[in-house]
Amino acid sequence: MEPELCAFLRSIGCHDAIQIMEQKKLDLTVISYMSVDDLMQILPKLGDRIVLKVFLDEEIKKKQES
Q1: Tens of pLDDT along 3-49?
Q2: pLDDT at position 63, please?
Q3: How far, in Å, CA of 64 to CA of 39, rounded?
Q4: Alpha-carbon distances, residue 21 vs 5, 27, 40, 53, 64 (angstroms)
Q5: Which of 18, 48, 62, 65 has the fewest CB atoms within 10 Å, i.e. the most exposed one?
Q6: Residue 17 and residue 62: Cα distance in Å, rounded?
Q7: Where does the chain have alpha helices with state H?
Q8: Which residues form a coiled coil (predicted)?
Q9: pTM (2 decimals)?
Q10: Cβ(49)–Cβ(40) under 8 Å?
Q11: What does each C-alpha distance from 43 to 13, 58, 66 come to in angstroms?
């Protein structure tokens, strides 16, 4: 898992999600392809899923620009 993703999840209080994502070997690219139902299993709160998607979009855009 990318350090930026880990730090972001910590900042929104999703510590359990960090452990799950590390166990399942989920990174930014994989998460960007996950369905809403898949994300619900890791992040049950709608607000957390929305801010994660925004974060992912921003990080992917940064990587494409560099």
Answers
A1: 999 999 999 999 999 999 999 999 998 999 999 999 999 999 999 99
A2: 86
A3: 24
A4: 10, 8, 13, 15, 23
A5: 65
A6: 23
A7: 3-11, 15-23, 28-32, 36-42, 46-65
A8: none
A9: 0.88
A10: yes
A11: 11, 19, 29
